[in-house]
């Protein structure tokens, strides 16, 4: 799966979890930029991404994610 | 040795000089290892006092080694339980008195922070985040790094490893000046602001706790003033200590993580803990809050429950974090207050977002009145909760709260919130008008100006230390 496909799938997961139909993701998108992306929805996002991509994340990976770009790189490394 | 003692200065200078004699990584690691051993030995009066700490480190290292080859969840669970049980026994928690005690005095300083480092390594080794085999000397250098030994900051092993004797440090004028500026700023906080606040606190506390019969108004004011002074003392003592540690780290190539980010400007209790003792908060977020929320969400997947699961997870996380601060029953009260603060904060956010909608709630939080009200309430709650730290005996704590009663506590809470809210409002009004004229700013930032500023800070530190006749101790050493 290439980066563009990961972004497309990830955007769909984000829209579903955060209930924001018009949400657009860029590599620089951070939690502060997205309404509703707080520490709780972050965990819900991680769970949804794990299920959707069939990957698992460790405690430090979950806590250390700074933006969408890092999220995509991490997914790409695991699939 | 205390970080404010001349002995520490001599020791630090010795370590820095020895470190820079050679660029060999093996040599530098040897210097750091010996530095740690000498620093720890300075707390000992008898070799036997180090044995429990050594046993704890050996247990931790054994667990890490086992987990690096046996990565099962059962092994991790057993290792975490074993290390925690050993920690609780050595730390002499009053509620576990029945477990018995070692029949000799021993070193417990630094134990709490070593625990966090060991648990972090164990979890990361188990999850595969740390794949390299950690040698015993690297384990010692990390868990007992003398700069962070007493009270953090809690650096991640991955970040420590990147600098461990490897980092290129150029001791040019700019680096040395930056390091000295940070260290001197730390001493200024430590021996001027914190010491003066402690002086005033120590003067008021006996008056507050003694069994007199002051008027209701006087009792409330006395309590509010004592509690506020303790908070000022705690913050400047701890953040000053961190400045000394971080500044010293610059000279050894160690970019240690920051522990404070203007905590008293926080607009909510949850934001406060993202700014206060940040490495501790982050540790708890990584290794307790996030896994707990994941577990809860896996058991109760309905999105409508998310916020309430979060409230519960915040309560548990802050309760544990509060209880960790001490070994007596009053610290359970502190933990409950921390847990309640975090949960109420989250419930408030959920209720406001539900009632007003996310956008209107966000707009409301940006209004001037709300900002200063929220800052005042946040600080006031924290100030009052800290009462547990300066009345560590439950009997003293309950007697004080009993004398104040709900009316007294409410009055003190409102008074402190109002005072801090007004202070911030005034500070924000005045600060923009305090810019120095260009010629003064240029003089201040020139080579001579910067060095004169540093020298005058040092002079003031010496003068205040002489005036107070004592060097304050580091308050967080006890936790």
TrEMBL record, chain A:
Domain Carrier as annotated: residue spans: 1-79
Top-level taxon: Bacteria
InterPro entries linked to this entry: ACP-like_sf, PP-bd_ACP
Pfam families per record: PP-binding
Record's signal peptide: none
Protein's UniProt name: Acyl carrier protein
Native organism: Bradyrhizobium cytisi
From TrEMBL, chain B:
A Pfam family reported for this protein in Swiss-Prot or TrEMBL: MBOAT
Primary localisation category: membrane
GO molecular function, one term: acyltransferase activity
UniProt KW keywords: Membrane, Transmembrane, Transmembrane helix
Entry superkingdom: Bacteria
The UniProt record lists the keyword Transmembrane: yes
Transmembrane spans: 50-67, 73-90, 102-123, 184-204, 216-236, 283-300, 369-392, 404-426, 447-469
Subcellular location: Membrane
InterPro entries documented for this protein: MB_O-acyltransferase, MBOAT_fam
Keyword Transmembrane set for record: yes
Topology in membrane: Multi-pass membrane protein
An annotated GO cellular component: membrane
Record-given protein name: MBOAT family protein
Source species of the chain: Bradyrhizobium cytisi
């Amino acid at each position: 799966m290439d980066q563009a496909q990961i972004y497309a799938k990830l955007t769909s997961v984000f829209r579903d979890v955060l209930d924001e139909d018009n949400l657009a993701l860029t590599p620089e998108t951070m939690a502060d930029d997205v309404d509703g992306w707080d520490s709780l929805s972050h965990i819900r996002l991680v769970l949804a991404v794990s299920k959707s991509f069939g990957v698992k994340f460790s405690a430090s990976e979950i806590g250390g994610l700074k933006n969408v770009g890092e999220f995509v790189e991490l997914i790409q490394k695991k699939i | 040795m205390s970080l404010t003692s001349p002995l520490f200065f001599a020791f630090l200078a010795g370590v820095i000089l020895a470190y820079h004699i050679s660029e060999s990584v093996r040599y530098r690691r040897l210097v750091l290892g010996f530095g740690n051993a000498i620093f720890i030995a300075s707390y000992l009066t008898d070799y036997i006092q180090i044995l429990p700490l050594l046993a704890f480190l050996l247990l931790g290292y054994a667990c890490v080694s086992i987990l690096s080859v046996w990565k099962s969840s059962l092994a991790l669970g057993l290792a975490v339980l074993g290390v925690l049980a050993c920690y609780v026994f050595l730390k002499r928690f009053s509620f576990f008195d029945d477990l018995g005690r070692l029949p000799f005095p021993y070193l417990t300083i630094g134990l709490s922070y070593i625990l966090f480092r060991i648990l972090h390594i164990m979890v990361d080794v188990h999850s595969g985040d740390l794949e390299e085999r950690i040698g015993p000397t690297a384990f010692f250098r990390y868990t007992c790094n003398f700069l962070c030994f007493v009270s953090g900051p809690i650096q991640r092993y991955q970040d420590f490893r990147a600098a461990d004797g490897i980092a290129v440090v150029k001791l040019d004028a700019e680096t040395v000046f930056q390091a000295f500026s940070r260290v001197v700023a730390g001493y200024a906080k430590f021996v001027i602001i914190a010491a003066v606040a402690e002086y005033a606190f120590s003067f008021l506390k006996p008056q507050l706790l003694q069994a007199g019969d002051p008027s209701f108004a006087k009792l409330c004011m006395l309590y509010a003033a004592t509690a506020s002074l303790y908070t000022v003392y705690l913050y400047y003592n701890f953040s000053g200590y961190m400045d000394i540690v971080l500044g010293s780290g610059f000279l050894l190539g160690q970019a240690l993580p920051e522990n404070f980010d203007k905590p008293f400007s926080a607009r909510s209790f949850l934001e406060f803990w993202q700014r206060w003792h940040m490495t501790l908060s982050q540790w708890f977020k990584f290794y307790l809050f996030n896994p707990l929320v994941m577990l809860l969400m896996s058991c109760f997947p309905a999105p409508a429950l998310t916020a309430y699961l979060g409230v519960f997870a915040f309560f548990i996380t802050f309760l544990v974090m509060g209880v960790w601060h001490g070994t007596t029953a009053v610290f359970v009260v502190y933990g409950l207050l921390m847990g309640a603060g975090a949960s109420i904060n989250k419930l408030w956010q959920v209720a406001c977002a539900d009632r007003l909608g996310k956008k209107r709630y966000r707009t409301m939080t940006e209004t001037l009145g709300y900002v200063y009200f929220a800052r005042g309430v946040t600080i006031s709650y924290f100030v009052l909760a800290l009462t547990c730290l300066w009345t560590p005996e439950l009997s003293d704590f309950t007697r004080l709260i009993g004398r104040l009663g709900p009316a007294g506590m409410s009055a003190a809470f409102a008074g402190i919130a109002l005072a801090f809210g007004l202070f911030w409002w005034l500070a924000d009004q005045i600060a923009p008008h305090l810019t120095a004229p260009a010629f003064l700013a240029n003089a201040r930032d020139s080579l001579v100006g910067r060095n004169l500023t540093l020298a005058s800070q040092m002079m003031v530190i010496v003068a205040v230390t002489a005036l107070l006749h004592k060097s304050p101790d580091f308050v967080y050493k006890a936790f």
